[in-house]
Sequence to fold (147 residues):
Amino acid sequence: MKRVLIVLSLAAALGFPFLAYTLGSESKLITVSVNIEKSLVPENADDWPLYIYAARPNTRLPLSSFKGKFSDLPITVNLDETMYLLPELTLKDADEVIVVAKLSKNLDPHKKSDQDLIGFSPVVSFKKGLKQKLSLTINQNDKSANK
Fold:
């Protein structure tokens, strides 16, 4: 047991925090299938970035995220505790999340456009189980781009 703790401590110090997650069988996982409403498909959008992420309800700060391209749609991805942007913000401590799928006209996710497209899931509760599955449709313009 002492050796396992030393290995985990060393791995964390060397920047391998995912090692600790892969050793636990009690990690959270969301399998999400994403598609887009056909009437919203933009022209020349094959290289538009696609962001799929889980966030706490009423926020947009990713706890787990995936980046792809419009041309990947339809797609099924797994969001788990190892796919965080900031190590202190992960799925691990979240009881409920929403999943967001966003297509961005800009390559920079922080530059919003009124042509950005988005879809939201209903609230996903891990109280119903650590492994969740859902389907999500990108079905509207991102209204936050106008703010």
Observations:
- Residues 1-23 have pLDDT under 50 and may be disordered.
- The longest strand covers residues 29-36.
- The helical segments are 2-13, 18-23.
- The chain has one domain: 26-146.
